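Please check this today:
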Amino acid sequence: MPRSETDLIAEVSGRVVELSESLVTGGFFEEDDVLLRIDPLDYEIALEQASAQVQRAVSELATARKNYERQRNLSKRQSTSESLEDDARNRLQIAEAAQREAKARLAIAERDLERTVVKAPYDGRVRTEQVDLGQFLNRGSRLARLYAIDAAEVRLPIKDDELAFLNISLRDGSAWQKRPSVSLSAEFAGAVHRWSGEIVRTEGELDPKTRMIQLVASVADPYREGTTPLPVGLFVDAVITGGVQPNIVRLPRVAMVSPSEVYIVDSSDRLVRRPVTVLRSQGDFVYINDGLLEGDRVCLSRLATAMPGMKVRVENTEGVS
């Protein structure tokens, strides 16, 4: 899935007078490319009107200010009434407000004219488009759906107990000390293709039914030259590099006499039950990370009548190392 995806929306109404060749489903574009133009004539006229209104407001404000200054000077010499000075002050305040309003309308007109040119927000690709040359658009009309190609993201479901092997948590990926690397592969177009990325975050929610959590892997610049593009919607296989676990002992699954115990053969060749911690079970093997000591002899044979203290014959004396 794309890291960034955007609905392209018309911010002004009008007829489409220019349409980029890139604005088609599957088309590529670069940041600030002009994707389409809306007829600007009405907005150019509105801009001229707003500009003229500002000039008029500036002139009226200058006149109101001069009149107020004159009335205030006359008032100081007691040559005018207080009501005339108040009236001049009110006219000045009205002129100041009119100028602010005119400038605001000018800013809106400039913005609307600028919005007749629709540009690409980033380097990307067109997922879908719903616009054609000559079409009349209303403000808010959906034009296309775009996505960025600077990075692609892949959702990878894993079991919750497998998080322990990846040295990651449910916190924001920016807080991780190191992001696990991931190798992605998929078969399409008659060949197997591979991409490299890294786990950048988890989606944070655990599916209560499946006990699965979604990891998100990021592949940088998936459309760069010299590499096979990573198409949106492609199903991939993933191999995630886990953390290094020290002092791990791999045993055949048949060595387990219970989910957390094995038989140890002591120095007298007798069986002793030993509790162990199973880090992981995979196929016909289990991986023990606690409970065994260097030199311990683990009973690997399934004995139907085995019990603690029973004497056994040891065929292979090699211990845990």
Observations:
- The domain at 5-39+116-148 is CATH 2.40.50.100 (OB fold (Dihydrolipoamide Acetyltransferase, E2P)).
- The chain has four domains: 5-39+116-148, 42-114, 151-240, 246-321.
